[in-house]
Design a protein that fits this description.
By secondary structure, this protein is α+β, with helices and mostly antiparallel strands. It has two domains: 2-60; 115-231, endopeptidase domain like (from Nostoc punctiforme) (endopeptidase fold (from Nostoc punctiforme)), CATH 3.90.1720. Helix content is 51%, strand content 15%. The strands form two sheets. The protein has a six-stranded antiparallel sheet. A two-stranded antiparallel sheet has the order 1-2.
Length: 233
């Protein structure tokens, strides 16, 4: 009987302890919630946020990281920076030679120089007397004078004016250049019997029967007897 009472008492005591534990658990949960709340109060949250912001500000930004990466990586050479290959001048030289332009330019310059030399030589004999049939500086006729002057520059001309007119290339009056031979028919029969050297500015030099070697303008008298001109340079 006493043993049964002890068992009953022990059972009642166990029930009471269980009840106390169950009743105390909500309080423990409440205390836990309160602790969590206190740990997450606004001022502490603000401090935590500031700490995170401060730490994140020390980290490099995405753009800085990209820039740093691009600076550390050597740039690939651009195709635009590649030096152009020198162009060959062979074809250009060939084209210039095939057109003949350089040769023409040199020839024109040479003719101009030779014309200047002829005029300079011709003027050296101004004042030399006229001698019919004369071919030397001691005395010239018109064709002997032109033959001699051109010979000093390596150009051979026939002895008489009519034959000299058969040489060279015909030149119109408007296109006369220094060094051209100009021909006249003083008898008025259109047969060439006089020749001179055009020196430019509407003038020519010749050995005339009245004044010897002299310069005349291509005035009305000479134009009325003018037959034509030839270029032998």
């Amino acid at each position: 009987m006493k043993k049964s009472v002890n068992i009953i008492m022990t059972t009642i005591l166990s029930i009471g302890l269980l009840t106390t534990a169950v009743t105390a658990k909500p309080q423990a949960l409440t205390d836990t919630v309160n602790l969590s709340y206190e740990a997450s109060r606004p001022d502490e949250i603000q401090i935590a946020a500031e700490t995170i912001t401060a730490e994140s500000s020390n980290l490099p930004s995405a753009s800085q990281t990209v820039t740093s990466s691009s600076e550390s990586t050597p740039a690939k050479p651009s195709s635009n920076n590649v030096a152009p290959r020198p162009r060959s001048t062979t074809s250009q030289v060939s084209r210039g030679q095939s057109t003949g332009t350089p040769t023409k330019s040199v020839s024109s310059s040479s003719n101009s120089s030779k014309a200047s030399a002829i005029i300079s030589t011709a003027k050296q004999y101004i004042g030399v007397k006229y001698v019919w049939g004369g071919t030397t500086p001691s005395g010239f006729d018109c064709s002997g004078y032109t033959q001699y002057v051109f010979a000093q520059q390596g150009i051979s001309l026939p002895r008489v004016s009519r034959d000299q007119y058969a040489r060279g290339t015909a030149v119109s009056y408007e296109n006369l250049k220094a060094g051209d031979l100009v021909f006249f028919s003083l008898d008025g029969d259109k047969v060439i019997d006089h020749v001179g050297i055009f020196i430019g500015n509407g003038q020519f030099i010749n050995a005339s029967s009245s004044k010897g070697v002299t310069i005349y303008p291509m005035g009305s008298y000479w134009n009325s007897h003018y037959i034509g001109a030839k270029r032998v340079l």
